[in-house]
Structure prediction request, 358 residues.
Amino acid sequence: MRLLIIGINIRHIACSAWRAGHEVYAVDGYCDLDLESCACDMAPLSRDGMEGPKGEGDPVSEHIERVRPDAIILGPGLEEVRVRGVPLFNNSPDKVRRISDKLWQARWLERNGFPFIRTEASAEGLDFPVMIKPRRGAGGVGCRVARTRSELDWGEGLIYQEVVAGRPASVSVISDGKEARALAANEQLIGESWTGAAGFRYCGNITPLEPLPESDIAGMAEGIVSRLGLVGSNGVDFLLTEEGAVVVEVNCRFQGSLDSVQCATGVNLFQAHLNSFRGVLPERPAIICSAGRAILYASRPLKIRRRLLFPWTADVPRPGSRAERGDPFISVLARGSNREEVVGRLRERSDLVRKAFH
Prediction:
């Protein structure tokens, strides 16, 4: 199938589609070297039309005319854009916009009997410390803890949550709009100092989650995704607390765990995503190994001067590109027989990458 895949960062989606045998045309905000190797054609994503509220601009029409694809997949940052005249293999923009509202999510989880984190439009009535988050957003960007009233932000577009301690996890799910199938439970890497991430920034995954919690988070994720009527690849984030699992948020899109899930299960996630639109769901796969991806963040401004030749990197930046302090600039991958092996290799490889850049 001739596919146009477009989004701010679509390397993981496009390369999975290419491995599934599809003809991939990529439009991306980074144009990394490994994306180029998976695409028949690659173009930079224009920011024109993307400065207003999501869905109001039209950053895809020029690429539709140029590529004339059989179908389109919208990636990160563009999932709410409306597309006309070409089949779209995504959840509907209206559904994405509604579910991406974290305040709406919390109310929905409460109504449907799922464990949730108390979430309010105002900090009034919440005990300190208080978690402050963008009402819409991803990757932990803009999240912080206020320990006193003087540290509160009162800007628009924020939500306020009780602070809950727990182990971050996620479940990767494929759904056909009625039924859902969990493919893997994953450990989430959040704010790991060895990746250069700060605060609550998302910086990768380990698949499978070890040890598994007593709570059936796979079954819970299937129930959430199926009741929401989602289609394709979706994910549910959890915190595993001493009292049990609580839902952090629902992500109606491809997740950053795609690399580790594919490696650990042998399932091509993109093809499973496409098949779900025809009502075909995979069985829950067996785990064949442990796998991980770590996103590395720049500790200072970087100018990429040469290509890295390590075979276990992903999102490989082009020579001449730049990363500001705190920006993600490359990913490292690893596999092993257990979590400890994978984390050890990820840390060793992150050290090698930093030495090569510095």
About this structure: Residues 49-56 have pLDDT under 50 and may be disordered. The chain has three domains: 2-90, 99-162, 167-357.
